[in-house]
Design brief:
Number of helices: 8
Low-confidence stretches: 202-212
CATH superfamily of the largest domain: P-loop containing nucleotide triphosphate hydrolases
CATH topology of the largest domain: Rossmann fold
Distance between the termini: 48 Å
CATH architecture of the largest domain: 3-Layer(aba) Sandwich
Mean pLDDT: 88
Number of domains: 2
Helix content: 25-40%
Strand order of the largest sheet: 2-3-1-4-5
Shape: elongated
Length: about 210
């Protein structure tokens, strides 16, 4: 089995992988880590591991953030070509949990300080693409946390009223009329826009004519 781990830095991927190495019931376990082996080194180690003849008892774990479909595809495609079953395990954790864990780390090969950790997490959460069921033989979520859902519980005081509006499409007057009907209180209520704020100003032909 080839397992592709997905999760931000500090989500517990490396700990999960190490636990499998120590679990004798898992049989032979090979952990492939770009942080530890480098870009070229980890791909070379992965290619070597895929040549194993013990596909039933050998477990290969790719320990990387694997936040995009393209990153995951390169490992899955090679595994399938070599005749391995594949699974994706998603271990998403929220920003604060990851930052707390990164702060406790010492001697990490790539994340040296808080600023490096912040930049790494921003990259993950901004570019994250949720794994589709078709990407591997199985997709397993070990955490209920979804980066596409914003947790506002700790951002605003308890009891805050949220007004959720979708598909404004540039209709400012209509939006203000809606807020008036909702008796919107500036500074107390929170407006959440979940649709299109503006409409297309030009057709594709206009954009083409303008040289855009």
């Amino acid at each position: 089995m080839v397992t592709i781990l997905v999760g931000p830095q500090g989500s517990g991927k490396s700990t999960w992988a190490k636990d499998r190495v120590l679990d004798r019931a898992m049989g032979e376990v090979t952990v492939i880590s770009q942080d530890q082996m480098g870009q070229k080194g980890h791909m070379a180690a992965y290619s070597t591991a895929l040549k194993s003849q013990n596909k039933d008892t050998h477990h290969i774990i790719v320990d990387r953030i694997n936040h995009t479909r393209e990153q995951r595809r390169r490992y899955v495609d090679l595994a399938r070509e070599a005749g391995w079953r594949t699974q994706i395990i998603v271990m998403n954790e929220d920003w604060n949990t990851c930052m707390d864990r990164l702060a406790d780390r010492t001697g990490h090969p790539t994340i040296k300080d808080k600023e490096t950790g912040i930049q790494a997490l921003r990259t993950y959460f901004q570019q994250y693409e949720r794994p589709a069921s078709s990407e591997a033989d199985s997709v397993v979520y070990l955490s209920a946390y979804d980066p596409f859902l914003m947790d506002l519980n700790n951002v605003y005081p308890a009891g805050t009223r949220y007004i959720v509006i979708g598909d404004v499409h540039g209709c400012y007057d209509e939006m203000m009329e809606l807020l008036e009907k909702m008796e919107y209180k500036r500074g107390e209520d929170v407006i959440v826009f979940c649709g299109d704020l503006i409409d297309r100003l030009f057709s594709s032909e206009h954009l083409h004519d303008a040289g855009s």
